[in-house]
Amino acid sequence: MELHKIDLRGKTDKDWSAEHSAYVCLWNERASNIATDDILEELLQFYDPYMLWYRRITRRFMSRRGAIAEALVSTISFLTVP
User: Fold this and answer.
1) Domain of life here (predicted)?
2) Residues 6+ positions from 51 with CB-CB distance below 8 Å
3) What are phi and psi of 61, to 5 degrees?
4) In sequence order, what are the residues at sequence separation of 6 or more whose Cβ sits closer than 8 angstroms to the Cβ of residue 77?
5) For burial by CB atoms within 10 Å, which of 11, 33, 37, 48 has the most?
6) Could you tell me if 67 and 61 are in contact, meaning their C-beta atoms sit under 8 angstroms apart?
């Protein structure tokens, strides 16, 4: 097999428009999926359910120092919340 004869045009028997039709429909309907709720004006509390979820699913630290700073903030917040 020669390397320069590989062109990634295989599977010519597949109907790619049918294969990807669900994704094309999602793309065409993208304008109807825009969030239009009111903007939240207040600050979220550290233990707000959304913030708990966000911290659980988000990679928040670039370094060990950042993780230590977050641990300090969460500890202070825990001690000061009534």
Assistant:
1) Eukaryota
2) 44, 45
3) -120, 135
4) 46, 47
5) 48
6) yes
